[in-house]
Amino acid sequence: MPELTDILNAIVLLLNFVFVPALSYGSQLALGALAVTLVYAILRFANFAQGDTMAFATVITILITWLLQRSGITFGFMPTALLALPFAIIACLAYILLMDKFVYDYYRQQNSKPITVVMASVGVMFVTGGLVRFILGPEHRVFADGARFIITAGEFKSMTGLAEGLAFKTSQFLTITIAILLVGFVFYFLQKTKTGKAMRAYADNQDLALLSGIDTDKIVRVTWILAAVLTTIAGVLYGLDKGFMANSYHQMLLPIFAAVIVGGIGSPMGAIVGGFVISFSELILTYAYKKFLIYLLPEVLQPDSLVQFLGTEYKFAVSFVILVIVLLLRPTGIFKGKVI
Amino acid sequence: MSRYNIRVATSFGTMFFLLLMVGFGQSWSLSLSIVNLCLISAIMALGVNIQWGYAGLFNVGIMGFTALGGLSAVLISKGSIKEAVKAGGMKMLVVILIFSLTIALSIYIYKKFKNKGLVIAILLAGYFITRHFYLDATQTIEAINPAFSGYLGGLELPVLLSWIAGGFLAAGAAWLIGKISLGLRTDYLAIATLGISEIIIAIIKNEDWLSRGVKNVTGIPRPVPYEIDLQQADWFNELVAKLYAGSLDLLPVSEHAAALKAHISDASIVFVKLCYSGLFLSVLLLIIILAGLALNSPWGRMVRAIRDNEMAASAMGKNVKQRHLQIFVIGSAIAGVSGAMLATYNGQFTPGSYIPLRYTFLIWVMVIVGGSGNNLGSVVGGFLIWFLWIEAEPVGFWLADLSTSFLDKENYIRQHLLNNAQYIRLIFMGAVLLVVMRFSPDGILPETNKKL
Description:
heterodimer; A: mainly alpha; two-stranded antiparallel sheet; B: mainly alpha; 19 helices; 1% strand
């Protein structure tokens, strides 16, 4: 029977390497997925440009952050990027509205098949991806400043006397707090305000909504505003947490879509639950449990391999397999999709 | 001549003229390289056109299927690494056996007992057993001479066979994906193909025992002669001497030998590329003829009927899902063939070079610009877009240079933009796609038999 400290050490190990990272990654995915699902519910297409738009918004944030840092403005122990965030949201919104005016609006007027609009969004994705790489290049860039940790592993160790540390990064703290606030706001908006109700009505039944005098242009605009806010914040939080790299944003598309479909496409609650389902499965399946088992098992049973379900290089495979399972067993997702 | 025929003639004529220009202006070797890659691109575009133009299936994972083709070029044509096979071959066979057994057993259990819990238990158990043996097997194989081989090698068969094998490999992957996601909402296929292509690339990048991963496989055997053999072959020397007899006579006798040698070395490069062009052209023609026959057959009419009105077609008793699956598999198989051709032409397989921008998106631009639903259109699109893609890089650089010319040479922004100038062509190609989709959705060569 393992001792109490061993059990505690094992738990802290999991908290540090699986639970906390999954919570913050899940929040980032959830915000991105929420944007995709809102656009899907109102504008009726799967937005392939989501990942690259997140990258674009992050690029703007990085540029403004550099400008602020150069003029000596920082945000104390918080990252300077937070000060840049409002400007980046406005820039991202301007970009999205421009794309809507020149690309999506036309297909909406034409009443095109959803797949045509999806293809147009692929076009937007490549233009955006090109812009992102043109401005900042494909390299990995870290733009987080301020205090890196709220609690470092060392502090935790000396506080509790355990062998394992539980580090809590500022970016993780920020991600979780901001995500909770933002999601709360979006739900309040959709449930309680007049515009939010109009959006839900429009998502539910377009014709009926038009008949009762709901202004389509306004609905579309508000949807893009919400999407821009969510997209920018999700992108910046992800960048603060893991650093900015154009390609990794592009590749976030798959987990985001998986989250949307797992939760039920078009359902905001589903997008959030889906985000956490994906992030937790990804981290649980790619974590190597060797050390964890060494704490818990008697010496004879201790493993010498890494005890990992799947190498980290296959983390896309996790999203994909979950996606496939959902498509096979319950194509509507956890929360019946296509309702907002 | 009808207007359509004039369009076909002008577009092909223009392409021919552009390539001649490159030939005379720059070099014939460069012109032929462009032609060869144009031919391969045209075949990829045909594969996509069959999926999108015939049936309206949106495949965003072309990259994955072409990579599978490339992988098959390695697995078919490379020599096997004897020590690796001896040390790890049996182990890998056991892994594959256990894996297939698990899958077969779970399918059997599912069909017989319909017990999902039991199936999941079997899959999990099978996964862990497979993984245990698999880790051992890969370590054994990858430990053998990692700097030069470190993988199992291939079957040492003629490389041309891999073009067919690549088609089958891609078809298998497509069948699996199609089976799962077709019949659901249309955009699910797009998302699923996006996922599978990322996974295929991850596999060939990381499974060193299979593909050497990012260490690349070079020296894939050629289906055509090597330049060095040509330069030493008597018949080739005589041929070049005869061709250049006129120009050689103008030179003093003392310079004849040197001039002839230069001509022979140039001619051997051009000759090899011409051989490739011949091979690629025959594949392209074969696929075009078959695809055209299929499109005009009752099957083709059914497929187009499904595309234009799924509801009506299924009301007439047509099995929509089955037809979609067929088309998806056929189109992906063609992408696989072209992938194998590309790896053969390059003579190497470089998993790191597979990026969606080049292998998925560019092909889409070709199909849309050429005219979706029209096979000749895809060929024109393949030629034109590849040509632009090659020529757009210097233009992008020139634009970046021009727009920052007022800045100092060492200026950070100028340097930075010049470094990233290669990405301008992504923006440019994306813009081309959006503009064509909006203002000329029919493309250069519109679909001829749109109305049934």
